[in-house]
Give the backbone structure.
Amino acid sequence: MSHAVVITRTTTTTTSTSHVVLNTGYLKTTPGLLKLAQLIIGAVILGLVFWDSYYFTLGDRRMFFMLTVITFCIGTFCLLAYCLVTKTANSKYFCEVFYHAVASILYLTASGLLLDLTVQHWDRPDYQSAYMPTSILGVIVSVLYLFSAILAKRSYRSI
């Protein structure tokens, strides 16, 4: 008995393009929302800081506050961008626990120093209008960084 065998050849061509796929689902998680809120409030603080030229010409407290805000805005942007382009959440690493804890402490310190400066010069309207909102927003961001550090620690310990 003979059988007829039909052989079919199919040629498939694929092109490889490397493109970045954003993990937008990360923004729906609590750590993602916290990072986004920290970045947005930090940008608002930066806007207020750069709006007021006294930050560049006067005292150490204002300069410390400005440098703290700029440093952690850049760092948080980098962390958020990293988490958006990777499939794994960054909070699994101890470096994020450390980063958020340091950010919380420095934001709270800088905001407290600026708030103290505002209270000392309460009779001057320029201190009330410029420094009070930025120091209060700094305290709020400090609390957000503290929550991020706690969440990152819990995530890190669960590995």
